[in-house]
Every structure is written in C-alpha cells, then in structure tokens.
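subagent[fold] <- orchestrator: predict structure for attached chain, return tokens only, no commentary.
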Amino acid sequence: MSVDSTTDESPTPWPAAYPDGYAVVDVETTGLARDDRIVSAAVYQLDARGRVEDRWYTLVNPQRDPGPVWIHGLTSEVLADAPLFPDIAGELTKRLDGRVLVAHNAAFDWSMLAREYARADVTAPVRQRLCTIALSKELRLPLPNHKLESLAAHYGVVQEHAHHALDDARVLAEAFRPSLELAAQSGLRLPLLACQPLTEWSDTPAAGSPSFGYRPSYRPASASWRPSRKRQPCPYPNPGRYKEGEQLIQGMRVAFSGDTSIDRELLEDRTVEAGLHVATSVSRLTSLLVTNDPGSPTSKSDRARSYGTPVIDEAAFIQLLSHVLPAQRREG
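subagent[fold] -> orchestrator:
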C-alpha cells in the first residue's frame, strides 16, 4: 500500500552521514519471554529525510495463546487464519532491507524480530537500529516522560488506536520526521546501534541455561563503573517481588546488572518516572533484577539466585514499563 509523500524540499542542509532510509516498526506480541511470539507487525518506510514512502501491516498467527488480549485486542479467533511468520518473512524483509530500523524502545522490537527470523531459519536484514527514546533524550525534548503518547503530543500527532501496530507505527513515523529534522539542524550524530542477527534458535534452552534468554550481542551502552546518581526517595512503598506474567507495581525495587542496549541513565530515568525504585544492589527486598547476561557470575546475579529474586532481560523490562500499576504514595 503506497502513501503519497510530501514533495516540497526542506532547505535544511542534510548531514551526509545520515542513513538513506528508515523503516519505522511496531510489533505486538503474546508476552515478554523468550518463547513469546509476534501477533501483528507494521512498517512505515521513510526516505532519507523521514518522508513516508509506503506502509504495510499484517497479522501473524503465533501458534499459541495470544497473550494480553486486553492490550493488543487480538483474540485466538482473529489470529486463527492469519499467516505464520515464515509466510510473511519475505515481504517483511523487502521492507526492512537496507534501512535503519526505527522504533520506540527499539531494543524490544528488534529482539522480537530477531527471534522470529531465527525460528524461521531466515537471516534478518536489519543491521542498524535507532531508538526514538534515545533520540528524544539526545535532542533534550521537554517531555514529561518517554512514553510514545508524550512524544506524539509534543509534535501534535493524534493517536487513534494505541497498541494497534499500524497506528503506533504511524504515530511514531509522524513524530520521527520532525525529530530527524531537528537533529539535522543541530548537526546531531544519530544514536544508531548495530544489530547482530541470530543465526540459530531453539525454543527449548540447553540444560543449565536460563529458561528465558538467548545470548545476543549487545553494544555496551555504559562503562562497567559509573558514578552514583543522587535520586529522590521513591514515594511509594515496596509491594514486594515481581511475579512472572504479572505487571510491575509502583514502588518495586529494580536493580540492573551488566551492559544495556539503551543508555543506562536513560533506562534508570524511565524506571524512576514509572514510579519504581532504582536499587544499586540486590538484597532480600529487591523486587526484580534486569540483566542481558543472566548466566554471568556477577555479584548481583549470584545474590538474585540466592534470594530467589526474579530475573528478566532488558527487552522484557522495557515492555513491562509501559503498564506499571499505580500505588498509593506514602503518607508524609
């Protein structure tokens, strides 16, 4: 399905190092674990200056329970006759090939796509991604938080159907263009990250390996040592540990270990904005440990195992941040 593009040429001098084209992507999924699947996907193809060239949307039969229907609205009945991912992989590849993948929390969308391509025994065509959360922070946009609706409101983009992949991709495409133009005007170096496709996949982990995580290549986003940041105390009481399959609750204590694909300070800022407490260490009170390398012998991972603290990867955590349950503030 083709979409008319704006024909007027912007007078903005364009940085020669900027990519030649972008693929704005949004996927809806059955959940957050390593064996969860994509249930719908949308791609808006943009030219070098962020103008829409084409859009595409498909349902995907996940071959399992559709998961949080109350979020994406896709029931088993709706998905029963949808194509399987291997059936749409070729069409999706045409729309991603040679372009930078753009997404709001690109680490999550990329990880889901990488897993699906690997399951289909097909090499994902994506080589670079750009997270619009990171770009917004680089541009110092005056946003109250890093949610998509806040970015859309900043640019006056109307969101019609939240958590519908096609509308979310449209909203992001419309918000990305002015951000891209602002970056070009400022001579900003875009926060591009390399994408390393998975070459093989098994939904059954090897004996002794973590049950929820593969071992992808992550670009280190922060040094191993970072000065501590003074934060205001969390205004919500700690409700206890996170329970798998449920939502985060304001006041939960979250610890991070190892490198993250999103800038660590940005990740911590988003955590605090959601009403969670960033813990610098793991204790019996820690609700959740977030790490992309759960098998590494770090002190935090060791303590999490000894205390029975739940452990999830970064992509799963970012998805959970979109649906944090509210809590009552502490008195006084």
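orchestrator: received. Logging for downstream: The CA atoms of residues 94 and 125 lie 9 Å apart. The longest helix spans residues 165-186.
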